[in-house]
Structure formats: structure tokens, C-alpha cells
Design goal:
There is one protein chain. This protein has about 130 residues and is mainly alpha-helical. It has one domain (about 30-130). About 80% of the residues lie in helices and about 5% in strands. The chain is built from four helices and two strands. Strands 1-2 form a two-stranded antiparallel sheet. Strand 1 and strand 2 form a beta hairpin. It is elongated, with a radius of gyration of 29 Å. It starts with a strand and ends with a helix.
Length: about 130
């Protein structure tokens, strides 16, 4: 610790402490992102959103279809207090609705992917134009 000319103190850290300070500072400093890293991140975000939407719809569809199948094939109708005929009709209906939802997952993936790519296209073109020159 040394006395400054302006009346304050200045501290000098050892090389080991300097390295530790740099590591801690890097954790909190804003990250610089080059063009290629930004392109990869944007592309990942588009794909990730489409995958998430498709997975949610697909899983909901499979669960609905499974509940419909369980109404048809198990004694669940008796414990729910509904007749076998009603359970059969409701179960088949739920199974078909669930199968339709599960089948829509992939076309929905393509639709979301296309829309998200259209949204991000100007930014991608701008970044790649700067990188190609």
C-alpha cells in the first residue's frame, strides 16, 4: 500500500491476485460477440423456438391420445362413473384428437421455423454482407 500524491492510497496486488481479479472481471464484463458467433446464436434461437413449440404440441397430443386409449381399454370408465358405451365414444374421440395433435407437431415445426426465419432474415443478411466484404 502506497500513499498517492492526491492524499489517497494505491494498492498493488501480486501476480496470483492479478490473475484472480481478471478471472472474476471476465465473468461480469459484457461479452464481445463476433459476426459468426452472432449468426450461430440467431440460427440456434430460431430452431430452438420451433422445436419447443412442436414438442409441446406433440407431447400434449400424445397425452390426450393415451388418455383416450386408457378410457377404451381399461376399467377407468367404471371408476369415473360413466358407462362403457360413453367411455368408448369419448375414448375414441380423444384418441383421434390426440393423434391429430401429435401429427400436427412436425408441420407446426416447419411453419414456426419458416416464420421465425423470415423475421430474422434481414439481420442475418446484414451480418453476412458485412462479413463477406
Amino acid at each position: 500500500m502506497e500513499n498517492n500524491t492526491n492524499g489517497g492510497f494505491s494498492y498493488t496486488y501480486s501476480a496470483k491476485e492479478q490473475e484472480e481479479l481478471k478471472r472474476i472481471r471476465e465473468k461480469y464484463a459484457p461479452k464481445e460477440e463476433d459476426g459468426m458467433a452472432r449468426l450461430r446464436r440467431l440460427d440456434r434461437e430460431v430452431t430452438k423456438k420451433a422445436e419447443t413449440v412442436a414438442l409441446i404440441i406433440g407431447i400434449i397430443g400424445v397425452l390426450v391420445m393415451g388418455f383416450g386409449m386408457s378410457l377404451v381399454m381399461s376399467p377407468l370408465a367404471g371408476s369415473l362413473g360413466i358407462g362403457e358405451t360413453v367411455a368408448l365414444i369419448v375414448g375414441i374421440s380423444l384418441g383421434l384428437i390426440g393423434a391429430a395433435l401429435a401429427a400436427l407437431a412436425y408441420p407446426l415445426y416447419n411453419l414456426v421455423l419458416k416464420r421465425e426465419r423470415e423475421k430474422i432474415a434481414p439481420e442475418i443478411i446484414r451480418i453476412t454482407d458485412g462479413m463477406l466484404k
